[in-house]
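Appendix B. One record, verbatim.
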Amino acid sequence: MNSRLSILRAVRQRGAVLLLAMVFTAMLAVLATTLMRVGTFEFRMAGNQQFRLQAMQQAEAVAVELAQHQANFPLQLAPGDAICSAGLIAAGCRLTATTLVAPASAAVPPGVVLGYSVSRQEPELLRDFPLRESQSRVSGSGHFSAALFEVRVDIDGGATRLASASVVQGVAIRLAAMD
């Protein structure tokens, strides 16, 4: 009788151990799944940060390159009007024969949209604008008349789920001396 009772206890304990092992396995599976999701989320966040920095750097490079070409700033442009890159439809864009000098840094991956524009700002002329010249171009006057422009560059990575960036840069174009 005693041996029969010990056999029944052993059978019951084996069932309890099996049930306890299944509960621990399920808890470990839930923990592993959660850690996997957190790791994937952090990986995506790091990738998004990298793409955002690259988009911002490229937008800045395009803005600087556009600002270096005098041909991108036509003085006949009325204040409020803009000249836009091909394919960009924005308020105030003019459809003229004048086109922007395409920057070499404007190459973007497929699915990423790059748009840039140059717009003339108010006032039409800024007279007696204090402007510091480089050492090689120093003149006798410390004030000049200038036309104000705004260079805007937008990179949208929406279709590729990459980051987006916008850069706006002001440019003052020195005008020839007026009497």
